[in-house]
Amino acid sequence: MKRFFCAILLASTLTCCLSLYSCTTPSKKYSDYTFDYFDTVTSVTGYAQSQDEFDQAFNRISDLLKEYHQLFTIYDRYDGINNLTTVNELSGGIHKPVKVDRKIIDMLLFSKDMYSKTNGRVNIAMGSVLSIWHEYRQNGIENPSTAKLPTMDELTEAAKHTDIEKLIIDEQASTVFLSDPEMLLDVGAIAKGYAVEQIAQTLIQSGITGYVLNVGGNVRAIGLRGDKTPWVAGIDDPNGTESSPYYATLALEDRSLVTSGSYQRYYTVNGKDYNHIIDPDTLMPAERYISVSILCESSAVADALSTALFCMSVEDGTAILDSFGDVEAMWVSPDGDIQYSKGFSKYIQGDNT
Question: For 48-187, where are the alpha helices, taking DSSP H only?
Fold first, then answer.
């Protein structure tokens, strides 16, 4: 899961009609929040003809978030639902094929595709390794005085069970099967962004525009604001000031912005911080950057790429971007140096360039 502090700056002049239904009166800006899904805060802001109209859209978004959260979680079980927690379960010491909702099948197929396109830098089959780091991180946060690192022997042994080819998906039967009994799925680098994009597409297909979703920092703009100007989002600077809190502010229209940061989730051992983004090559927290931000249309792609590029050089990351086409990135190194992909600066507002 990725989080960054993102400010959505909204104009108060409302002149256009953006709603679920045809209308002739100017729309108004409405906002609401939920804390219930994907272990984060979701904010929804949009332009509608009435509070009731906005509430209908917000409730629909919340219902979809709930559905995707319950399907994609690896931590909780829900009555009557086979989710990824179910897929990860052992029965008699082995995994068994689990019949799942088509939404899970589609997300896992997308994840396999992203594994291939990022040369393995985003691997949802790394759950055996990531679960070890999760346990040590949680213990370190709860008991800082006894915080410690997992041993390389632990990590290396767990890494033997991260072969994504052993994730067997039967589309016809709608089943998922892990053929390695010690393999676990962890979709934290993909699930939230994927869910946000699916929800955005549902709204678009329903004719809803003039909305922005911010699910724990996964920002997805749908159309323009009510005054026909782009939405504006800020990329948080953890060392920023009250007057200058962002590395950059960006104009968004029908685009997504996702940032992975080393400052977002971490714990401290012997005075050194260890973040939650684990490099699949070293099995250790990636240390190249403070943050990597991805700007593109799909929140699912942005979520996956922000993790992938965090674990590779700017040169290798640029090559990955070029293979995707209309995708931009911004890298911030520990010394504060900022690098942009070739098209990123055209989205920057003000004097941030």
Answer: 51-72, 84-88, 102-117, 127-142, 152-159
Q: Is the predicted pLDDT of residue 123 greater than 50, yes or no?
A: yes
Dihedrals φ, ψ of 238, to 5°? -65, -20
Residue 342 φ/ψ, nearest 5 degrees: -60, -30
The helix (run of H) or strand (run of E) holding residue 168 is strand 167-170
CA atoms within 13 A on the CB side of 44: 23
Q: Where are the alpha helices (DSSP H) in 14-50?
A: none
Q: CA–CA separation, 349 vs 7, rounded Å?
A: 13
Amino acid letter, residue 120? G
Note the pTM of the prediction, 2 decimals: 0.90
Q: Tell me: the pLDDT tens digits for 255-284?
A: 999 999 998 899 999 999 999 999 999 999
CA dist 353 → 10, 83, 341, 348 (Å) = 22, 44, 13, 7
Whole-angstrom distance, CA of residue 296 vs CA of residue 281: 26
- C-beta separation of 274 from 137 below 8 A: yes
Q: How many Å apart are CA 232 and CA 317, to the nearest integer? A: 25
Stretch (H or E) spanning 273: strand 272-275
